[in-house]
Amino acid sequence: MSQANESAVRDLLERWAAAVRAKNMSEILANHSPEFLMFDVPLPFESRGLAAYEDT
Q1: Domain that holds residue 22
Q2: Which helix (H) or strand (E) holds 38?
Q3: Model pLDDT, residue 10
Q4: pLDDT (tens digit per residue) in 1-56
Q5: What are the two backbone dihedrals, phi and then psi, of residue 48, each rounded to the nearest 5 degrees?
Q6: b vs e for 29-53, b when ≥16 Cβ sit within 10 Å of the residue's Cβ?
Protein backbone atom coordinates (compact mmCIF):
# COMPACT_ATOMS: atom_id res chain seq x y z
CA MET A 1 0.00 0.00 0.00
CA SER A 2 1.36 3.41 -0.90
CA GLN A 3 1.98 6.01 1.78
CA ALA A 4 -0.83 8.16 0.35
CA ASN A 5 -3.30 5.26 0.48
CA GLU A 6 -2.24 4.34 4.00
CA SER A 7 -2.70 7.95 5.12
CA ALA A 8 -6.16 8.08 3.52
CA VAL A 9 -7.23 4.85 5.26
CA ARG A 10 -5.88 6.04 8.62
CA ASP A 11 -7.68 9.38 8.21
CA LEU A 12 -10.96 7.65 7.40
CA LEU A 13 -10.65 5.36 10.43
CA GLU A 14 -9.77 8.25 12.73
CA ARG A 15 -12.80 10.26 11.52
CA TRP A 16 -15.06 7.21 11.97
CA ALA A 17 -13.73 6.56 15.50
CA ALA A 18 -14.26 10.23 16.46
CA ALA A 19 -17.82 10.03 15.12
CA VAL A 20 -18.48 6.88 17.16
CA ARG A 21 -17.15 8.53 20.32
CA ALA A 22 -19.36 11.58 19.62
CA LYS A 23 -22.35 9.34 18.75
CA ASN A 24 -22.69 11.28 15.49
CA MET A 25 -24.69 8.82 13.39
CA SER A 26 -24.55 10.83 10.16
CA GLU A 27 -20.74 10.90 10.31
CA ILE A 28 -20.56 7.25 11.37
CA LEU A 29 -22.55 6.29 8.27
CA ALA A 30 -20.90 8.79 5.90
CA ASN A 31 -18.76 6.14 4.18
CA HIS A 32 -21.10 3.16 4.41
CA SER A 33 -23.00 1.79 1.43
CA PRO A 34 -26.78 1.59 2.04
CA GLU A 35 -26.64 -2.16 1.30
CA PHE A 36 -23.61 -3.05 3.42
CA LEU A 37 -23.48 -6.27 5.43
CA MET A 38 -21.80 -6.25 8.84
CA PHE A 39 -20.84 -9.13 11.09
CA ASP A 40 -20.15 -8.29 14.73
CA VAL A 41 -19.05 -10.06 17.90
CA PRO A 42 -21.92 -9.04 20.24
CA LEU A 43 -25.50 -9.81 19.27
CA PRO A 44 -26.91 -9.26 16.73
CA PHE A 45 -24.13 -11.02 14.84
CA GLU A 46 -25.42 -9.88 11.44
CA SER A 47 -26.81 -6.50 10.36
CA ARG A 48 -28.01 -5.76 6.82
CA GLY A 49 -28.29 -2.17 5.64
CA LEU A 50 -28.00 1.23 7.26
CA ALA A 51 -31.24 1.01 9.25
CA ALA A 52 -30.17 -2.25 10.91
CA TYR A 53 -26.75 -0.76 11.68
CA GLU A 54 -28.36 2.31 13.25
CA ASP A 55 -30.39 0.01 15.51
CA THR A 56 -27.21 -1.50 16.96
Answers
A1: 3-55
A2: strand 37-39
A3: 96
A4: 899 999 999 999 999 999 999 999 999 999 999 898 888 787 778 888 888 888 87
A5: -115, 120
A6: beeeeeeeeeeeeeeeeebeebeeb
Q: Considering its fold, how many domains does the chain have in total? A: 1
Predicted local distance difference test score (pLDDT) of residue 52: 87
CATH number assigned to the domain comprising residue 32: 3.10.450.50
DSSP 7-18: HHHHHHHHHHHH
Single-letter amino acid code for the residue at 18 = A
The torsion angle over the Cα atoms of residues 14, 26, 32 and 15, rounded to 10 degrees, is -10
Tell me the longest C-alpha to C-alpha distance in the chain. 36
For residue 45, the model assigns a pLDDT of 81
